[in-house]
Design goal:
alpha/beta; Rossmann fold; four-stranded antiparallel sheet; 10 strands
Length: 228
């Protein structure tokens, strides 16, 4: 569903990612792992069009979108949830959701509330007053209202209280059970990432140091690659 081929990308004259290639299975999860500064977020920003690769290609459902703007990628079925649980803090939870729903015919706020029951009690609360876990669930719900085929998540459990991390992890797994949504996930929790993902990729110094099938059996290979 989403493929990056030999992507070189960075900021100005500084290349951060050196020839990275990965693919996201249709209806499944691919996880990108690595230490801080490895280039994970830079790679995601190239996938969604916020950075332009100096070389390499980005393919969405077989179409080359390497030079397509972010809004065109969104229209073709890509959604991005960056780090930081982003929302409009002065709007209520319901207003945040409705703002996106109004721009996408057929999107229903009620569907998102059903997927994220924790939002039910805070619909009238300003987003800036929500907990980190609630804001993250709101951010994912807003992305899903666009009707994506590929959901790109950057550190969805970062800074979230442990009691809520499991809920967010289960939600991500549940999203792909129908087979209609693919997920590209950057995640620090290696155990969760490998249990959720069909494929994993470890970045080290901007290069893919290891890749393979997900699952518990991949732990040793991932640990070894992250020790580089």
């Amino acid at each position: 569903m989403l493929e990056l081929v030999d992507v070189h990308v960075g900021y100005g004259r500084t290349t951060v990612v050196h020839g990275a290639s990965l693919s996201v299975p249709e209806g499944g999860v691919a996880a990108v792992l690595g230490h801080n500064g490895a280039g994970k977020t830079t790679l995601l920003r190239a996938a969604v069009g916020l950075l332009s690769p100096t070389s390499g290609r980005v393919l969405l459902d077989g179409r080359d979108v390497t030079r397509a703007r972010t809004n065109r990628r969104v229209r073709r079925g890509m959604a991005y949830v960056p780090q930081g649980q982003q929302s409009f803090p002065q709007l209520t939870t319901a207003e945040n959701l409705q703002l996106v729903a109004d721009a996408h015919p057929g999107a229903r706020v009620d569907d998102m509330v059903e997927k994220f029951p924790a939002l039910t009690e805070v619909l009238s609360r300003k987003a800036g007053l929500l907990s980190g876990g609630q804001r993250q669930q709101l951010a994912i719900a807003r992305a899903l209202l666009t009707g994506p085929r590929v959901l790109i998540l950057d550190e969805p459990t970062e800074g979230i209280q442990p009691s809520v991390v499991a809920e967010i992890e289960q939600t991500i797994v549940d999203l792909t059970t129908s087979g209609d949504l693919s997920v590209l996930l950057v995640e620090q929790h290696v155990g969760f990432a490998l249990s959720a993902a069909e494929r994993y990729y470890v970045l080290a110094s901007g290069r893919v140091a290891s890749s393979g099938d997900g699952g518990a059996g991949a732990h040793d290979a991932v640990r070894a690659a992250m020790a580089i």
